[in-house]
Amino acid sequence: MNATVSPSTVSGTYVPPASKSAMQRACAAALLRSGTTILHNPGNSEDDRAALDLVTRLGAHVAKDESTITITSRGVQPKEGQLHCGESGLSVRMFTPIAALSSQELTITGSGSLTARPLDFFDTVLPQIGVRGGSTAGKLPLHVQGPLQPADITIDGSLSSQFLTGLLMAYSAAGARGVALTVKGLNSRPYIDLTLAVMRDFGMKVPRNDNYESFVFGDSVPTPAKDPLHYTVQGDWSGAAFGLVAGAIAGKLEVTGLDVFSEQADKAILRALMQTNVALSIREDGISVGGQAGGGGLNPFHFNATDCPDLFPPLVALASCCAGTSVIEGVHRLAHKESNRALTLQDEFGKLGLSVELQDDLMIVRGGTVLRGAAVSARHDHRIAMALGVAALRADGPVTIEGAEAVGKSYPQFWAHLQQLGASVSLTG
Ligand SMILES: O=C(O)C1=C[C@@H](OP(=O)(O)O)[C@@H](O)[C@H](O)C1
Ligand SMILES: C=C(OP(=O)(O)O)C(=O)O
């Protein structure tokens, strides 16, 4: 599908979708408890659907109605030997240790960009916790046979926090006691805060976090959550970052449905917006962004995105409209996402005439000149598609984004939402 976005202004109220990071964690936590969980504001992205399919195959019963999803479980009891993670990095990395709680032999597969993403972490870690199997030359498919036995181990947290998320959940469900997960060089730290928050909300045993270097499971026994457990999935700061940037560069929006106290990493978009001097008001019941007092331009910004790497694409769209050079740190975190995002941002924004320079860990974006209308590609990456769609609002002519359906991975309603805000978007093919 192609999306053609013509220069437009946006206005009105914007409500982002449910966070797939929160939704996938909630699915895992619902699988791990004995009882019934009712998810309110459930997500419907491709990654969310992959997680729901995984919990079904791992033994839970999933029932959907118009506004909720009910998951009934008695813990991990696989019904199938094959697990499919779609394209979701979080699902494969979180559900692999969870699946290995069972003693059944399981094969874990995925599709698209996930088949190229690194999983060799499991080859060194699984044998230390009683799990046989591992990856296929560092990639999918994975083969595992548990049962996983929590032990004191040291892991590398620099490539991705998602492996640690899975281990924390699996250790907790296995009743870990008197053991510690030691982590070297953890990146994407707020995602671990989100994991621990979901575990707490689901009445799971939560380890002590010693400065993100050690997670210690003590002797305490958690109080089980009430049954049925009602859980509301938070609005998505990662998706909302695109809406907030659209408001900042091309109009004025009122954003609701976000928890301003959320643990989500991408809430940090607010810090970058503040540096640009955009008119911004942050309240518990909503955020208004855009419509600069006095009509002034946006200032460039310097932002470290090492712990919130998914913000790079919306930040590049924002930087394209700032008068001067913006610098984003943390480029090394981008190599193994749905695409190598440093290079795809450079190539695709380059077609719009934007200079994106890569210098070691820095991305240098020279904003301030009007983007030109052109044909670009989403490169099978949802966040690249959305960043191009938002930047196109301020181009000098239509921008056609090929492969626009990529948004389905995290935000299927993205193009419809942009249209509802008044943007000219036509979808073809
Ligand atoms: O745990 C999560 O929900 C995620 C963690 C981050 O990955 P890394 O930990 O690999 O940086 C992020 O990029 C991804 O989109 C979602
Ligand atoms: C990288 C992403 O997700 P995941 O790693 O879960 O596939 C993303 O949503 O940008």
TrEMBL record:
Source organism (scientific name): Flaviaesturariibacter flavus
Main location (coarse class): cytoplasm
Gene behind the chain: aroA
Enolpyruvate transferase domain ranges (all copies): 7-418
Official protein name in the record: 3-phosphoshikimate 1-carboxyvinyltransferase
SUPFAM superfamilies referenced in this protein's UniProt entry, alphabetically: EPT/RTPC-like
Gene Ontology cellular-component terms listed: cytoplasm
SUBUNIT field: Monomer.
GO MF term set: 3-phosphoshikimate 1-carboxyvinyltransferase activity
